[in-house]
Amino acid sequence: MKKKIFSIIICFILMQGIGKSQNAEYILQNYHPSSPSAFQFLKYGEMPVSEYTGIPNIAVPVYEIKEDGVQIPINLTYHAVGIRVSQEASWVGLGWDMNFGSIVQEINHRDDYASTTIRLQPDWNESPVPSLYIQKYADNSTGLINYGWNNRDSVVSCKPYFSYRIYSAYPISVGTSGTTNFSAQTVAHAYLLPLNGNRDSQTVATDIIENPNYDSEPDIFTANFLGHSIKFIRNPLNNQILVLNKQGYAVNRTGDVYQILDPSGVEYDFELNTTVTSYTSTYNGFLAGGSPPLPSSRIWMLTKIITRNKRQILFNYSQSGTVNNYPSYSEKWDTTLNSLGSSWSASQVEGYYQLPIGNGAQTEKSISYSNENRLTLNSIIFPNGEVDFFISNRSDLLGGQKLDSVKVKSAGSVIKSAQFNYTYWNSSGVGGTQFQPDSASNYGNTPNLRLKLLSIQDNSGAIYSFTYNENLLPAKNSLAQDFWGFYNGQLNNKSLIPNPVRLNSGQLGGITGLSNNGNNNSANLTYATSGILMGIKFPTGGSTTFEYELNQFNNYWVPDFSSTSNVISSGNGLRIHAINYNDSITSSPKRTVYSYSIGKASIPVQLSRQFRANSIQSFPTSSTYGTMNSYSIFEMSGKGFFSSNSLSSGNYVGYDTVAKQNVDLSGVTIGKTVSVFYNTPDNVSTSAYNMSQLSISVPVVKQLVNWSPGSISNFENGKVQTVLIYDKQNTLLRKTQNTYTNNLSTIYYGARFLGYDQLFYNGGGMLPKTLTAYYPIYDFESLPNTSRTTDYTTTGDSIVNATVFSFDGYDQLSYKQTRSSDSGYVEEYYNHAYDYYQSTKDASLWLANIFSEVTDLITVRRKSNYGTYTNTYRYDKNYTTVNGRIVTSKVTIKPTPDLNAFPKIITYDQYDTQGNLQQYSSDGITNAILWDYNNDLIIGEIKSASLSQVAYTSFEADGSGNWVTNSITIDSISAAVTGRKSCILGTGTISKSGLISGNVYIVSYWSNNGPKMISGGSGSMTVGRTYKGWTYYEHLVTASYPTFTVSGSGSIDELRLYPQGAQMATYTHTPLIGMTSQCDSGNKILYYDYDLTGRLIDIKDQNGNIVKTFKYHYAGQ
From the CB of residue 644, how many other CB atoms can be counted at a distance below 10 Å? Predict the structure, then answer.
């Protein structure tokens, strides 16, 4: 199988074609070996862009494993949004990554699967702003029951928005029986909050708030692997695993191992995991101190893939030791705007504690530390080979390692290899203000170093080199950052706190008179591009270069770097402005320019908030008054009060409209494409602005506009609404308009608790209150509904093609109607696993999670008169199980509207134990297929013969192709006719049994010392041509016995047996490289030669004459 090493790829698809018609001939083609084709050497890298975000999807494929329909790309990918100051390089360099699949568990409060965790939630309770849940006693001085209080509360379904409740405890009397004087009560308490409708005194209700083992927040799991991306939770009601954003996936957990089945029935196992442990030290502020080390996330690595035919691909890892990430830093600044003192004698007040007494300002500084026992990939092993990864230690990350080389092997021989070459950026001389973590000396010079990927070189000498913006980034602990963490050149910033004099009234909540702190945290393009990838040079000498600009958005405001009068805000990373291509051969450079409008940041930067806090100064008694101060607090955060999480869309800028223009050397447009996208910012907790320092920060979630049960009006961000294509005269050529339908998951929720304030009573008794934030947990998927394309002609006419889509409950296409303004309708009806079960009562596909398989397809063609049929087509499949593998047993095709016409039937008669098709019949003719090379590659195709009546071997691999060998010797040194090996018969024999007496067979072979003896029948022999000492012999033998035996001295190669009248074509291969010979039914041979990197270099005929040559030229050669 031909593989490609090193080319630049990118995928950006506006609207994929869906539900292409399938037929039996296509299925049979899957069993034909692919003809070798030239390595498609990229002259220059076409870099399509993820236009919605303006981020080019840069990928360098190193190798690709293909096994039984599963593709595993070994890719280097680059995220060209900019480099953040605190960003660590991955194991392949800063900005680059190479990963194969993982599940990340985002732990909310407690690990859902920890042995001590007790999972329970209070009933969802709606309150858009923090409000006190009804208290049991209307008058705390008399103990009167509140009107309407009972032991039950209505249990309602949660909604897809935030809710906040304050729950209070109630006192327990220890006084004289029947008294309700709270001065005689203890401070013992129990909480009143609804649990399954019961809101009266419950031990469990109190435990939810006060017992650290109770967990009311489901953890969010995100699985990304080989093009699949799903999110799931453990249902708090029944502990089942539920996928939120996709249909057709099955997730199971056994012990501490996850198994995911995709909709095609392929199994992905995640058996090894590591825990990221983090803790925070806080200095100054209201809550100074440190948190204990706690797990913040767990990461499971993809360890095994089991294909539909049960072939295994194994990922092996080693524990690389503890990796200590450089600490992260955040700051909050608080000032008291005003205070108001009062005296009181009431029996109840609400007052905050751990808040400042008196006026003033202070800065709270937090440093977060994290470490993990990282797993490093060592190898990927698959049936015909393995890929090994070689690593070494690095200098920029404590305990970190880097990837040095990749080697692809088959049978112990290196097929391909790639060497990664690095250096380091060193920021030691940049300077500027920096924060200092505890034990800073332990990190050595790692804050100044960043791993830099210079080039990749394959074993042919081809070099792919990378150029970067060489403007040095500051140290990872520098404070010269913009609001989003990117470098902005302000080395004199003294903190991360925004400068209030640069913010407008909206960001400051109307507060004025705040002093200038000298900081500038706005984005600066000159410095935001520091360290970014600027270009790629290819071995041919061609190159691709990138030009960037700052993102822009209008859904919230921040100041520009050099002005505070801007209307449109800039920042949150980079977008691509232009891509330049040069192939170095044709001297015809290309340039593509991108322009954007109506940018929206998915998550706003909320830089400040204001709240009022009360503080008890003295407590009242029955004869005295107490005092209480009320403070107005203004707070600013250097990183804002919102951040992305696994429930959000991510932290990016998306654009409503993006235009892509191809321009010539003089800058004149030679055509453009305009794309319009769905673009809705995420939903954030708006109550965060007026909630206290101690308020709960809740996750950001995707926005559901105009939500109602079962319906939402907005669609996934980045889905394409409209595409307009113009020619160089700016004349509209084509317009495509798309609509979608949404699959919204069931809405779940988490409840996050925090101590909020206290209730104080005469005599100093106090009871706690708790702020509870309910946040929704959900996701949705937007599937195509309609697509309408209008092509405009030069005469002003237009041709309209409209397509309508419908999907089943597993996100599989069930119906497609295509209508053309000039040719009528085409309707396609698709059936899948559940439909197959309904019609046959065979649930095997369904139980195996094979939902993507089309089991039945009906195509109806109609004229413009909708009721008139012009043609129909029906394609129907049946299945059986072979050695635990679900395989096709029969395909029925009806290609005509004549119901009385005989259908075409193809039966799949025989499979091997690996699920490979060995024999099938079509139109009454039986055909056979022979497999070898670990049952992974086809070595023979025979028409008009059954499997039991054919045999073939070229003595190359582990199998014998239906022959039985006895005491033979395989010669891998002498030149062979096909492949690399031949057979020395000596005193040995090669036999084939199961033949039919009286039938005539052809036995052919090549020999280097005369004909061999064929026993078991009689007939004639023909001598063919001689080539390089080998002579072709063909025997026509009538079987007298059911077994033929080949014997004789000397060597033999390319040994075939098949019935007279059948046609046999045979193949040899070098696994992981490609086909090495092809011998047709007339015994004419083509030879394929490859270089050391697996590239096809020539094709030769049976006489060794070159019929085609492929040349690969590198720069400098």
Answer: 15
